Amino acid sequence: MSDSDDQLQRAVLDRLLDIGQLSIEELIRDLTAETGEFAESDPIERAVRELVRAGLAHRHGPFAMPTRAAVRFSELGDG
Predict the structure, then answer these.
(1) What's the CATH fold of domain 3-78?
(2) Are 66 and 16 in contact (CB under 8 A)?
(3) N or C: which end of the chain has fewer CB within 10 A?
(4) Nearest Cα residue to 51 out of 79, 3, 11, 4
(5) pTM score over 0.90
């Protein structure tokens, strides 16, 4: 995994932690130039898949949300 992949996953997770639940389309709009190009949307979808695989996010249909573990870890870091 590259540094840019890690940075994108961090950006996606930060957005989910801020909002709580977003659709994948909302994440794509928030984190890209909104051209609708596959080259821009695929990395976001891949980042969500990796966060789910790592146990930091849940995916329910078109929506993603942070896990309780991710929220708690974020709270500990903010203290």
Answers:
(1) Arc Repressor Mutant, subunit A (1.10.10)
(2) yes
(3) C
(4) 11
(5) no
